Amino acid sequence: MKGYPKNYPLDSRTFFGVNAMGLISTTAYYLYTAVLMMFITDYSGIYTNVPGKAAAVATTLLFVGRLWDAINDLWTGYLIDISPRTRWGKFKPYVLIGTFFTGILGMMLFHIPQNLSDFGKEVYLYITYFLFMFSATIIVTVPLTSTMSADQEIRAKLISWPRITSNVVGVVFAFFMAIASFLGTKKSPNIPLTVDLIIIPFLIISLIGGFMVKEGPVAEGTKPPKLRDVGRMVKINKPFRVNLYFTFVGGFVWALLTATSLYYIKYAFGVANLGIQSMYFGLLTLVTLIGGTLISQKAMKYMSALRGVQICYLGMVPFLLIMFAINEFQVIHNPWLFYLLIGIVMTLAGAQFVPANLIIMETMDYNRLKLNSGMEATINAVNMFLQKLQSGLATIGVGLALLLVGYNAQILEKATRIPDSLLKSLGVVLFGLPAVFSLVAYLLTKQYPLQGEARTQMYAELAAKTAAASQKNKRV
């Protein structure tokens, strides 16, 4: 392609950039899910003389922040889509700007000026956190990647390796408190300095990656959408609608697994063993995500993205039902049996990532054909909104399961025997409901219209349309 590196987008420069540009997004995710709440409640120096006040501030901030983030996703996606194309492309400027400010604001979030009053510190947290979440939202790496190629095998490679490299960030955060304690003390870990030491290198690498990426030609010739096009997309783009249905239902499998597993591990394998068992589970999660991603990337050479998603959904059902049945008759107290079966489920869930993202890109391609506008950022925003909604609803589901059995952590941690009713209640949420959601999601995939000849025809028409637009631009 004229104006693009040789072998684009699999040339070494672009491939490195695609792998590196999203690292700061992963860093941001771990900061607000794994570190921020404990920092505010225990180490920020806010409301230290008012018992429970710091915890209330942290809970309210994170809850309101997630609501803001979810709503923010939707309108931000549309605003990005209607932005004019620059000489760097439409999405790359947002990726670079979002990356820079996410890094800076992420560090500011953990450096609260201690000369402020408690109320001043609270205001500082709200302003910084909201800006931080907004900056992370505009790092639209998936829409940018979708412009590089319409070939499924190439897209699979561009999606899978960033997924794998992002786990480097997860490994670093697994040792976060150990590093913070080393830089400070066990009683007063130096969290702000630890955050700086993690963010700065990942920020630099992400910016380098963003600059090295060249936005692709797939979206050339398309026009910015108008507001009414959002409604037209929902009406005309059946692949988009059906994908939303099965993605929303199927997404609860992973959301429930991650929200419930540690509770089950804690009480099924012994409260005293939680530290070592949670480490095993963390390593299992890492291995299965990487393994599943690598398997699915290779599989995309031999099957469609839809077939890959269907195999994953249907494949999880029997193993989840086996675990549910075992747990109903006799609680699973053997950790190795638990890890074996849940590991298979998590591998299939991890393998779903690549084909699921390929289907999202297909819905963008369908938009380009039917509406002459990919609306990539809007579609990406809707999918991000669904993920956050799933996470919130899954947490509510776990809470209801605990409420039904009168959960009291202080009493249970001192108990000589954990009641089976607790573990069976958790088993419904951890094994039973995911099996149902996975089966329903599989059945919904049957309604996806871009299968076989229909998919081939769509891409033939899109290629012809893109070629015609390219010829027109050359004449101009």
TrEMBL record:
GO terms for cellular component: plasma membrane. One of its GO terms (biological process) is sodium ion transport. Keywords: Cell membrane, Membrane, Sugar transport, Transmembrane, Transmembrane helix, Transport. PROSITE patterns: NA_GALACTOSIDE_SYMP. One of its GO terms (molecular function) is symporter activity. The chain crosses the membrane at residues 20-40, 94-112, 124-144, 164-185, 191-213, 242-265, 277-296, 308-326, 338-360, 392-410, 422-445. Coiled coil: none annotated. Its main location: membrane. It is a multi-pass membrane protein. It is found in: Cell membrane. This is MFS transporter. It comes from Lacticaseibacillus rhamnosus (Lactobacillus rhamnosus).
